[in-house]
Amino acid sequence: MPHGDQPEATRLWVAPVFDERPTAHEPGATGRSVVPRRTSPDDHAEPARVDDPWLFITETILSPDGGSWVDGLHREHELIWTGAGALTVEADHQLWTVPPGLAIWIPAHTRHHVRAAPGTLTHVTYLAPQRVDPPWAAGIAGITLSRAVHELVLHNKAAVLDDAVRMRLQQVVVDLLVPVESASLDLTMPADPRLRTVAEAIVADPADDRTLGEWADTLNISSRTLSRAFVRETGTTLTRWRILVRMRQALLEISSGRSVAAVALRLGYANPSTFTDLFRQTLGHTPAAYLKSFVTT
Question: Where is the HTH araC/xylS-type domain (predicted)?
């Protein structure tokens, strides 16, 4: 019987390219980078990766040059996490930051975008939906990736195990998956093409401090129109949205070993104390305490 993981399943993305071309099975596609919501299981989903009777397998993707790509529709749930580097995942118009200690749960048949910084090591754990169906499985969620889960998943991937032992290990992993209890890490991305231009520019450069008026001039619309439209599509103001982007970028950089002072300066804050206070106001903890809130044993 084949075991529930594949040691050879390590993919190398030399230069991932974000494919913006519409496809035949996406009616009305405009070619813009908008993430469709979950689709029917019959809509060209890729072949199943997890063989009976196993619960999951894990693949590893190395991105030396970084980049972004559209992941295909998968029949399995996905748990996306990083072993090194910075990673963001967009699905259902939500943008998720993925620092160490956190994984993003993507339900089966949900198209998503993945963005990786150079040198990022991305792990994708595929879980069979007919055998793994926790109460929260239907929605996208941040999942606490404890040290135990991290090590057990990698052990399942690399080790030669007796079938019964492997099945017990996989069941323990599934039982240990817990939705994150910290402040929400999702960020709503606007669908309107004009607002999307602003949002993508800020995500690409969180230190961009152009005012609402300057963005309105760029889009050739009034400040009032931009303000109302942004709140309507994202649920928050442009200023607040930019702060959230900065805090999430800070999580990635601090968790990668950069000092708080260096990260604050890069994100446009001359005073690290101001940055730390803003981080606490936004997410309820200092950066160090926030990371500890979901990096557990």
Answer: 196-293
For domain 190-292, give the CATH number.
1.10.10.60
CA 72, CA 78: separation in Å to the nearest integer? 12
In the block, tokens 């690409």 appear at 204
Could you count the other beta carbons within 10 Å of the beta carbon of residue 83? 14
pLDDT at 44: 67
DSSP code of residue 189: P
Give the helix/strand (H/E) hosting 106. strand 102-106
Q: Which residues fall within 8 angstroms of residue 163, CB to CB, at 6 or more apart? A: 1, 3
CA distance 279 to 290: 9
pTM for this one?
A: 0.66
Give residue limits of the domains in the chain.
Answer: 10-179, 190-292
| Domain range 10-179, CATH architecture | Sandwich (2.60)
